[in-house]
Amino acid sequence: MLARRGDALTLALARCRRVWGGVAVFSAVLNLLMLAVPLYMMQVYDRVLTTGSVDTLLALTTLVAATLMVFGLLEASRGRVLTRAGAWLDRELGSPVLAGGVAAALRAGGGVSAQGLRDLATVRGYLGGPGVLPLFDAPWAPVFLGIVFLVHPVLGWIGLAGALVLFGCAVLNDLATRKKLTEANGAAVRSLNAADAAIRNADAIAAMGMLPALARRWGEAGGRGLDLQTAASDASGIISALAKVVRFGLQVAMLGVGAWLVLGHEMTPGGMIAAAVILARGLAPLEQLITSWRALVGARTAWRRLRELTDGGRDRGEGTALPRPVGRVAVEKVGYVPPGMREPVLRQVSLRLDPGDALGIVGPSGAGKTTLVRLLVGSLTPTAGHVRLDGADVTAWPDPDRGRHVGYLPQTVELFAGTVRDNIARLGEAEDEVVVEAARRAGAHEVILALPEGYDTLIGEGGVPISGGQRQRIALARAVFGNPALVVLDEPNAHLDADGEQALVEAVVGMCAQGVTVVLIAQRAGVMAQVDKMLVLQAGAATSFGPREKVLATLRRPAMTAEPAPARSPSP
Ligand SMILES: Nc1ncnc2c1ncn2[C@@H]1O[C@H](COP(=O)(O)OP(=O)(O)O)[C@@H](O)[C@H]1O
Ligand SMILES: [Mg+2]
């Protein structure tokens, strides 16, 4: 079964619904217990003060004290349940959201953003925090109003009018702020993402003095968001001040009209006090809703983005495990149109490779070479045709399973924060020998030993800085780790020196001798001397495919001959 990730979100929410069902029950009991204090007041005024009975006072006080203890316990438990529900939601959704982010980055062709995880934190913060409680308490307002009606209908009508005005304030607040807040939220996200990109490109920014321009752009995006946010806060502030005035006014009206009714002997003083307190309690959540509206809108926007992120993605985490392939590759009339584009980047590309074949792909920058190899390793799904590994469609093959049989050196190599060993072992567990063996096969063993702590050197964020060439060699070791049946190298010699190039040539020769199918893209001729088949890509179409000598004969281009040619700079 291929599970869709969108399901994970719905499923988690459905399971959370049970937790929130529990919170709703807690809230019901808490709201009822809240009546204890006003009822106590009423009894004290009407019974104790009129009869002078100390016994009654003691009994009532004991009763209300016990009720308050239960109230305290329930209130604390409700908070604990919410916090845990939030943390649980985070754990449950963390990996589908991360996977959704990776899938979105694949679709967009790079530029991973951690926005999904930020959104998840926002949702967790809201659902697991006190901001969500007014939503559970507000539905009890009618019950409190009903009780006020029981005390005296006139007070009930005043309360109802007040409640309607407060409710109107909440609606008005939503109308006045929702659009602004959603836009402000979007602007904040854009400016955070811009900051992310800036930090990734720190080098270029510093070298070319781009910081002032960058700061200006970033400030403009952030500034628009701030303006919108300020406007929303202003509107919200006026409305919540109005709501406060209404609530205080309501209290005055309750006491004023109440006193008048008491004087007319229509009700007791205790009833008057109790009705005022009950109404205040009952309407408080409506007012809190207005103050916490911004958090609610923020959480809802974040949730929507999460849905979009995890929807329409692919999840190939599970499926029937297939046996280890021998490395037979078949590309059948493959075409690729990037999402949102009309022109295909690749059209009608076909080729076949047998185990032990080495294929060299050449062609100008932008011809679609990288796109073709991304389709080969299954990180992109073709929009037409099929890519098969040992007869099985690579896009139908579960990722972790297929990944074991495929080695890939991307054109832009980013290593993970961790040790060299972690990076070679693809962040998993591995025997020392297997890691060293992979490094040896990639010709990276000596280079790694020369690092400060050899295989245990920390690289990536916060680690030892390493050169582009060192990075490429470690990434090559990661590609050949675990003896994959198919190894795909996208411009593996772009940053290599003569030694590195020699090591690469030996690695390719060694792999082919072992029956590994190798596909490589190279702009320089050196390593091309080792391939036995070649594919020429031009503007997304395969103009020539076949044995190397034949293809070279049709090419008649000096840079593509077997003799080392002057180095050309690689395409981006
Ligand atoms: N995700 C994408 N969205 C839009 N255009 C893309 C995407 N991926 C690749 N392209 C376009 O496809 C073309 C081929 O890119 P690429 O395969 O990287 O070429 P090469 O590796 O041969 O230099 C380029 O014009 C590039 O802009
Ligand atoms: Mg490329």
Q: In a few lines, what is going on in this structure?
A:
The chain has 572 residues and is of the alpha/beta class. The protein folds into two domains: 5-310, ABC transporter type 1, transmembrane domain (ABC transporter transmembrane region fold); 329-560, 3-Layer(aba) Sandwich (Rossmann fold), CATH 3.40.50.300.
Account of the protein in words:
The protein has helices at residues 5-33, 36-51, 54-108, 115-127, 133-137, 141-151, 153-200, 202-207, 211-263, 269-291, 293-310, 369-376, 399-405, 420-424, 432-441, 445-449, 468-480, 498-513, 548-555, and strands at 329-336, 346-353, 358-362, 384-389, 392-393, 406-409, 418-419, 458-459, 486-490, 517-521, 533-538, 541-547. The chain has 572 residues and is α/β, with parallel strands linked by helices. The protein folds into two domains: 5-310, Up-down Bundle (ABC transporter transmembrane region fold), CATH 1.20.1560; 329-560, Rossmann fold. The strands form three sheets. A six-stranded mixed sheet has the order 6-9-10-3-11-12, with helices on both faces. The longest helix has 55 residues, at 54-108. The structure holds adenosine-5'-diphosphate (ADP) and magnesium ion. Residues 369-370, 411, 571 line the site of magnesium ion.
Topology (SSEs and partners):
Layout: H1 5-33, H2 36-51, H3 54-108, H4 115-127, H5 133-137, H6 141-151, H7 153-200, H8 202-207, H9 211-263, H10 269-291, H11 293-310, E1 329-336, E2 346-353, E3 358-362, H12 369-376, E4 384-389, E5 392-393, H13 399-405, E6 406-409, E7 418-419, H14 420-424, H15 432-441, H16 445-449, E8 458-459, H17 468-480, E9 486-490, H18 498-513, E10 517-521, E11 533-538, E12 541-547, H19 548-555
Parallel strand pairs: 3-10, 3-11, 6-9, 9-10
Antiparallel strand pairs: 1-2, 1-4, 4-5, 7-8, 11-12
The protein binds adenosine-5'-diphosphate (ADP) and magnesium ion (MG).
The site of adenosine-5'-diphosphate has 14 residues, from helix 12.
